[in-house]
């Protein structure tokens, strides 16, 4: 009986200490806790918790426990004084402070009695006298504190009483218990052991009253723990009960008193530890605890906030280490039902579904035609989440065999099929493996899995659209290259056609024949270079930039058009630029050819090259028909829009892209009936080097 009672008292002190710590920490950290005495209450609870822990570990007569008890009384007194601040009576009632100071002085005398008791521990008469002083001081403290509590509550306003009644009741109950305890101790000339053993219950009651007053709002009094808190708390409770059982049984074996008592005690401890390690590491037990708590403690099975956050975190995981989206989709569904693994089946081009991704399920054998087209049609029309255990038990009679093929039924780990529907179209099915604690899916599971399935279907459909768009872009890039090649061939064909027409008129002239040979040689070079440039389009940034003289490029272009159309170099400054010479020449040929085609015979096309403020400025000027502002704004630099019959509409676009690739800029000014001026600005070689160095420095800093 004595051992059991000691164990009960020990647990009572621990319970009082833990509850005081919990409430004190909540008061210290929660912003909803407001009031002038919050800090004092939190400190008092913390000190009392320390005293309770000390008594449980060291005993009530230990010096450290006595010091903490005196500090606890001072903390309660400070809390009481701060409670007067609820209606500012601490400022108007001057007698309060002297009374509180006197009571604090009386309690401080305990710190003088503690060393005296240690010094005269071997003198029973002196020890009795010291105890009598201690009991007297505590009686004075209890009486004075109760008087202050009466004045606190009786003199408070009606509104203040609503906030003060529970703290006053907590302090009143605690000090009434101590008043009786020290009165009996004083009269009996000894400590009443039964009341001392019951004192943690008085502290626990005070903590409960304080907590009830803080959460007096009816809505706040509802117990609403999170699922993780409930699971961890229940786990700790089981562990605590297990440890208590171990202690009781071990102590009972120790009291056997035989020669085999210590052997039995050791064997029991080893067996209990082995059982504990086995049970704690069991996934099935953890799953059972989670399911049991969710079913009995909460209104809903799922914590939808945490489930959605986990789902978003799983799907949104990025980086080279992250698994691909299909695997993350399987994991996102499996985490909801605690399934250890799963598969994703997606549509095949031939119809039906095939395996697209595995998540932690390498051992299952999936046929190439995992689900037939008839099964796909069933899930699309019914949007049914299939529990395979119901099908195995024969409880689902309306499921066609195509919706659940033989390989699924035969695999005992196959548990549920979750369709992923996007605009009533099936984009996949997630097959979930059996969780550690198998349960029957209910309406809440179906609702959540259906919503998650639709969300996942949108992600998978978006990825499919992006893949299709990327493929279309690759085809578009190929078509664009062919269009550019056709445009270059068209320019060469125009030059050769013009040469053939002029040959009929001027073939006998030696100067024309020389120009004709030069033009043919240039056309041949262009055709050969065109073959080398087929892989260049769309990859301008990959070629090394070289330094060259821009004026020489203009001279060569003007030479090409000799005998075809007058192209005049009005000013040709020396300008060294850095870039792709062939690409720039190709861009200039596009622009000059457009100017030639827009100009009438006998109207020159003017080229003007100037070096200005670190840039080479090149102007291509014609006196042709010009362009409207609307055409320049909306169509000039758009591919496949042309103002010329039979034109491809990509010359200006390609020229601008080639110039931009060299760090330049292309502007256009035009007036209908007056002509057009293209202005090209390219950084000179020194400026380009400086810009490149600055960009490299920024990248290194970043």
Structure, described:
The chain is an alpha+beta fold. It has four domains: 2-222, Up-down Bundle (Rhopdopsin 7-helix transmembrane proteins); 236-297, no CATH class; 304-470, GAF domain (Beta-Lactamase, 2-Layer Sandwich), CATH 3.30.450; 539-697, Histidine kinase-like ATPase, C-terminal domain (Heat Shock Protein 90). Helix content is 63%, strand content 11%. A five-stranded antiparallel sheet has the order 2-1-5-4-3. The chain has a five-stranded mixed sheet with strand order 7-9-10-12-11. Strand 9 (605-612) and strand 10 form a beta hairpin. Helix 1 runs parallel beside helix 9 and helix 10 (227-254) crosses helix 12. The longest helix is centred in the last third of the chain and has 64 residues, at 443-506. The radius of gyration is 46 Å and the shape is elongated. 28% of the residues are buried. The model is unreliable at 217-224 and 537-542 (pLDDT under 50).
Short summary:
The protein has four domains: 2-222, Up-down Bundle (Rhopdopsin 7-helix transmembrane proteins); 236-297, no CATH class; 304-470, Beta-Lactamase; 539-697, 2-Layer Sandwich (Heat Shock Protein 90), CATH 3.30.565.10. 63% of the residues lie in helices and 11% in strands. The chain has 24 helices and twelve strands.
List the helices and strands and how they pair.
Blueprint: H1 2-29, H2 38-58, H3 63-83, H4 89-92, H5 96-108, H6 110-119, H7 124-154, H8 158-188, H9 193-214, H10 227-254, H11 261-280, H12 283-297, H13 304-315, H14 325-337, E1 342-347, E2 353-359, H15 373-382, E3 386-387, H16 388-392, H17 406-410, E4 414-422, E5 425-433, H18 443-506, H19 510-533, E6 546-549, H20 550-560, E7 567-572, E8 576-579, H21 581-598, E9 605-612, E10 615-622, H22 629-634, H23 651-661, E11 665-671, E12 675-683, H24 685-701
